[in-house]
Amino acid sequence: QVQLVESGGGLVQAGGSLRLSCAASGRTFSNYAMGWFRQAPGKEREFVAGVSWIGRTIVYADSVKGRFTISRDNAKNTVYLQMNSLEPEDTAVYYCAANQGVRLRPNSDYWGQGTQVTVSS
Q1: Which of 3, 4, 79, 121 is spaced 20 to 30 A from 36 at the CA atom?
Q2: DSSP readout, 58-92?
Q3: Which residues of 81-117 are buried (b: 16+ CB within 10 A; e: fewer)?
């Protein structure tokens, strides 16, 4: 059974940092893009960042460019999201996702349960 398990969310003040992790299990994730979406209250789920299997293709949402960094450790089947200079607008539930191919899609094959990130002003 494929599982994506997120960790690292929490409450932080504006300007602070958090690091999210997503550990994947249940299959081999070679040739799978992995990454993050988020959903704020009352809003639709939106793409945050994605990385290809060998890390050659990395894509960020414009709203997080220069503040967030995505990385992955294929030996550990884990993808990370380093979030710096956090803003209250970053408050959301963050979901890990994975799908075949180079780029992460909104209809990804696999999803985690989500981890809450709250940024106070």
Answers
A1: 121
A2: EEE-TTTTTTEEEEEETTTTEEEEEE-S--GGG-E
A3: bebeebeeebbbbbbbbbbeebebeeebebbbebbeb
Of 83, 84, 81, 96, the residue nearest 38 (C-alpha): 96
The 3-class secondary structure across 108-120, one letter per residue, is CCEECCCEEEEEE
Residues 6+ apart with CB under 8 A from 74: 29, 30, 53
Measured CA to CA, the distance from residue 121 to residue 114 in angstroms comes to: 23
Rounded Cα distance between 17 and 68, Å, is 9
Nearby residues of 32 by Cβ (< 8 Å), 6 or more positions away: 53, 98, 99, 100, 101, 109
Which has the closest alpha carbon to 81: 45, 57, 51? 51
Tens-digit pLDDT profile for residues 11-63? 999 999 999 999 999 988 889 999 999 999 999 999 999 999 999 999 999 99
Q: What's the token pair of residue 65? A: 């460019």
What gap in Å lies between CA 20 and CA 25, rounded to an integer? 17
